[in-house]
Amino acid sequence: MSTPPIRIVHLGLGAFHRAHQAFYTARAVDAHEWGIAAFTGRSRRLADALSAQGGVYTLIERAADGDRSQLIGSIVETNDGACVERLIELLSDPDVAIVTLTITEAGYRLSADGSVDLRDAVVRKDLDELREAWGGRGLFTCEPQAALTRLLLGLEARRRAGAGPIAVVSCDNLPDNGHVTARALDMLATLVDADLARWIGERVSFVTTSVDRITPSFEGTHTATIAGREWIDAVPVVTEPFSDWVLAGDFPAGRPQWETAGARFVDAIEPWEIRKLWLLNGAHSILAYRGMLAGCATVVEAIAEPSCRHAVDAFWREAADLMPEAVETVDYRAELIARFENSRIVHELQQIAAHGNVKARVRFAAVAERSLARGSNADASLFAISSWIAWLLAGHAAPKSQSEGVAAAVAAEDPVRALVSLLSATLVHDSEAMQRIRMGCENLATQAFEHAQ
User: Which of 40, 211, 349, 371 is close enough to 288 for a disulfide, judged by CB 3.0 to 4.6 Å?
Assistant: First the structure.
């Protein structure tokens, strides 16, 4: 079978991309027309390991009653994320029609209001380098470090090459992620070159998506017999059988027929997006922070812990009350419990807990703000915020893993107020909400102390 041509560039090669977007692309009826060139986010190890296997890897769907393995061959090229020269070359090719992103919520480097955080040291350094080189022969020798500034440089190369329109598809757990990406790139482009900003506005489409598939990190090899051949894989992906992908937006240069693999294309994505973001991701974060305070290490352990399950149920009730009536939540919640209880998926709470300030902002604070705005009870979402803060103040997050803002807030004279300010300008100025958050922190600290005895 011939290798499909590269028509998709992906930033953020990792387990989730391989379990989701690469999986859907491989299963589409026109998969032979759509190859993916993927770039890692932080390390070249995965790129090298996949390259040694020709980009092919084993996807293991781990259900309660057994495993199902399949080979995925949609990734035809893997690169170190720092290989900006190759990114420029690919995005200058008119045959490349799509850029997909799984750079994590923190990878967008946003401030609390959703704009690019210009206080971020990496963003500042990248912008200074781009401004200095812009218009000169040395522009494409720049080596920006942030994912969006790398993408910005690639889009400028496409503009100069006259390579035509392109779609940028965010697959990260941010509300209205297409608009967030568009706003961030417009802001960065405006700070560097107004002509590029105008070109992006005219020639780049931003697609909003909701992605759903529990995919824990996995280390180790896997041996399986597939199509009569024993396959030894150094970098397999372990995931759950469930998967969902909802997309809204235009693809001006074409796209795979992902709908033939189960994806859904809709006009209005917000109901699907917030249901998944609040009910699945929100519950995951509650289980992570509340669970580790109770001595749990995995999702399976935490969902079985009574106080964690109660916190999740209360948060679900509050979040579900904010959703449109047309969005079904009762069956979805029951299905989530079954997915969380799949003991064969070892999803570590420490993995979920990473980048908590970004996650708590969109998973907890957004629910609390909307509940309070409509005069409803926000106890569950405020308690979820307390869980994150209590987890930080108990020392569960390694200092080196915290962002500069979180580390400074933890060390502040009033860490609770400083941490809430990272999530919401509304809540930090609401005295009653702050009182509830403080009470929650105190109660959780007491419970954590008693648990440790």
Answer: 349
Q: 267, 290, 313 — which closes off a domain?
A: 267
Of 267, 288, 320, which marks where a domain is finished?
267
- The C-alpha atoms of residue 323 and residue 187 are separated, in whole angstroms, by 31
DSSP codes joined into one string, 332-396: HHHHHHHHHT-TTS--BHHHHHTTHHHHHIIIIIHHHHHHHHTT---HHHHHHHHHHHHHHHTT-
Whole-model pTM: value is 0.90
Give me the DSSP letters along 252-311.
TT----GGGGT-EE-S--HHHHHIIIIIIIHHHHHHHHHHHHTT--BHHHHHTSHHHHHH
Contacts of 179 (CB under 8 A, 6+ apart): 206, 208
Contact in structure between 14 and 71 (CB atoms under 8 Å): no
Using the structure block, give the residue that is written with the tokens 């997050």.
Answer: 397
Q: Inform me whether the pLDDT recorded for 174 exceeds 80.
A: yes
Tell me 2's DSSP state: P
